[in-house]
Specification:
Helix content is 0%, strand content 31%. The chain is an all-beta fold. The chain starts with 30 loop residues before the first strand and ends with a strand. The chain contains no helices and five strands. The protein is globular, with a radius of gyration of 13 Å. A five-stranded antiparallel beta sheet has the order 4-3-2-1-5, with no helix packed on it.
Amino acid sequence: MVEDELKDNQLKNGRMISGEPKDIKYKSGMEVQDINPDCPHNGSRGVVTKVTNGDVTYKVTNFGRHFTLGDELTKSVDQLIPLS
């Protein structure tokens, strides 16, 4: 990938390459996705139901090997990206 295409450590589709997104304020109702490649819930998407000190809880809206529709997962903010 050409270095000029990178901005703030993000790809054009909004996914993070590495590290934590800066200045993102998670709130209830926001859609998020787990992007941690080492997490069994990687790729899970959902709607935020609760935000606490550095953690976000969301209700899953897709299916995967280790998660299913309706599961509630709690992740640290560095494992998530917001979906637009």
